[in-house]
Design brief:
Layout: H1 2-13, H2 17-20, H3 28-44, H4 47-74, H5 76-80, E1 86-89, E2 95-101, H6 106-122, E3 125-131, H7 137-153, H8 155-167, H9 174-183, H10 188-194, H11 198-214, E4 221-224, E5 227-230, H12 235-249
Parallel strand pairs: 2-3
Antiparallel strand pairs: 1-3, 2-4, 4-5
Length: 250
């Protein structure tokens, strides 16, 4: 805020070059007069404040984007080559998307079918799913069950379970998860046994640490190529991002 005020004062000074060249040597009366001039200037030209805010927000957004790109570049291996994560879509796809998910997140549920449609209709996207349960104990239980499904029964079963968990509207309890597994034709006993495997919690802990390094605080969060996008992204916007990534890669 101090920098913002300084910028506004600087703009005002442009209208008073004589004062601008010797501001540090103003006596008290001159300083009072100057402050009155600045106040009058801003009252007469309130659009200056809006312009200054817009410039400030633009610079902050640019700095944040550059910082995120740098963080993505520094964490390439953890993002794209972690053995913990499920990889779906076209394993040789020319565009890679990473999604941080929480099964209890309403926006993740909204995004889930659209991400699936993007991957299915495009045919050349590799999608990496990172379990990031941040909405309480039920989120954690759901993620651990999903990871245990992958560990015990493989990637196809994991995708089935992920679809089921995203569609689940009841509380996440062990009984509800056992019923879901049965509905999907999956062996719940094998899944529950795998939940105690250290790899399950290690996967989640690794994603927590990665999210912290990237500044991710919510779900869904996406990495499209070298771009981090936090929050729900509509299908049409995802398609545009993918098209831009392909254009820039040519």
């Amino acid at each position: 805020m101090k920098r913002f005020i300084l910028g506004v004062v600087t703009a005002a000074l442009l209208s008073f070059p004589a004062m601008a060249t010797d501001l540090g040597n103003l006596n008290e009366a001159e300083r009072d007069a100057f402050q009155a001039e600045v106040r009058a200037y801003l009252l007469q030209n309130p659009e200056v404040l809006m312009e200054a805010f817009a410039i400030l927000e633009g610079r902050q957004a640019e700095a944040e984007a550059l910082a995120q790109q740098s963080a993505v570049a520094e964490n390439q291996a953890a993002l794209f080559n972690s053995a913990f994560d499920h990889v779906g879509g076209n394993l040789d796809g020319d565009v890679v998307i990473v999604e941080f998910i929480d099964y209890r997140c309403s926006f993740c549920r909204r995004a889930h079918p659209e991400v699936a449609e993007l991957v299915d209709t495009d045919g050349n996207i590799r999608i990496i799913t990172k379990e990031f349960p941040i909405l309480g104990e039920q989120s954690m239980l759901a993620s651990r069950f999903a990871l245990a499904t992958r560990l015990a029964l493989g990637g196809e079963a994991y995708e089935q379970m992920g679809d089921g968990l995203m569609a689940m509207r009841s509380d996440v309890t062990e009984l509800a998860l056992a019923r879901l597994a049965a509905d999907l034709g999956l062996d719940s006993g094998a899944i529950f046994a795998a939940m105690d495997d250290p790899l399950v919690q290690a996967s989640i802990d690794t994603n927590y640490a990665l999210a912290q390094r990237l500044g991710i605080t919510g779900t869904p969060s996406f990495v499209f190529g070298d771009q981090l996008v936090q929050g729900y992204v509509p299908l049409a916007n995802m398609q545009d991002i993918v098209a831009i990534l392909r254009e820039t890669a040519e």
